[in-house]
Amino acid sequence: MKKTMKVAQLCLAAVALAATAQVANAGRPGGGGSVVACVGDSITAGYNLAGNQSYPSQLGGMLGSGYTVTNWGVSSTTLLYNGNYPYNSTRTYSTSLRSNPNYVIIAFGTNDTKSYNWDAHSAEFIPNYEDFISKYTSLSTHPRAFICKIPPYYLPNPWPSDFPDPTRITTEILPTIATIASATGSGIIDNNTQLQNHPELFTDGIHPTVDGANILAINAYNAITGAGVALLSGSTISDGGGSAGSAFDNNSSTYYDSTLATGAWVGVDLGNGNTKKVSLICYSPRYSGFEGRMVGGVFQGSNDQVTWASLAPAITSSPGDTYSSIAVTGAPAYRYLRYYSAGASSFGDVGEIKFFGK
């Protein structure tokens, strides 16, 4: 009887937050050096996204070959050991421990807010979370642990009986996570503030879009590297042949498309007297068959809009249906930043551009 009930509970849990549980546990191809284990629920797994669009996958591209980033997310799981589908009961949990990470990013709480979990077991959240962290930090590699302030969720969503009260995250989950971070000495990653009041960054009210996942990835990047980079923004500039704002609206499904076939460009003016050093560029292509138009494109900086210098080598391959990243080293500070489309008949096509720096 108990076995039958347990099977039924697991089935209901899987349906509640994800029609198909997604577990993406492959590391970044070609990665090496330090191992970063991303542990969490469907937001980590990348539900509703292609595998290369999840935040761990994007993080791997940002960190580069000195790191191997692994995704141990399992849809529908809870941190609560007595939740309806506890993560620590999964095979993925055991495997993640054997990965011997140097860093572990832990992101739970969304499924814990369900009334049948939180109302019955909220008092167990802190001791369970502290014990969970210790299982990783006591490994032989003694990884640095980061725990995440989870994203908000929005109404309507496909599971209104499970997620009817978005305020529970703000009033109960987030303060509790802050308490746990302080008590355990864990780093804390704020994945909530930047997604507040932005339901458009969610595919279904619960799970981030590829653009939302990019925000989670840059937050993790700053935590792991200590780089402290921020998004550089300003007024848009362009060759005048398209909608420049579409390349900087945090929506990769919109795009810049110039009337100028070759040599088109689009960028930002940081403002009079404001120059910044770029250290990271994230970009996504115009999707649905236009990705290859970015081949040969180059990101540049200028202080007079006459002389432009390359921030990094030109793009050599089609970026695919996700964000790609370029690390920038040694570039001086610039006021004007742009993407220059050098390919023949490429029309400056680009979905989204993000310059990060200080």
Q: Outline the low-pLDDT stretches.
A: 1-30
Q: Helical region count?
A: 8
In what order do the strands lie side by side in the largest sheet? 2-1-3-4-5
Helix content: 25-40%
CATH topology of the largest domain: Rossmann fold
Kindly provide the radius of gyration, computed on alpha-carbon positions and rounded to a whole number of angstroms. 21 Å
Give me the CATH architecture of the largest domain, please.
3-Layer(aba) Sandwich
CATH superfamily of the largest domain, by name, is SGNH hydrolase
Q: Label the overall shape.
A: elongated
Q: How many extended strands? A: 14
Indicate the mean pLDDT: 92
The tally of domains stands at 2
Portion in strands: 15-25%
Ends apart, CA distance between termini = 60 Å
Query: Structural class of the helix and strand makeup?
Result: alpha/beta
CATH class of the largest domain: Alpha Beta
Return the string of H and E elements: HEHHEHEHHEHEHEEEEEEEEE
Largest sheet: 5 strands, parallel
What is the compact description of this entry?
The protein has 358 residues and is of the alpha/beta class.
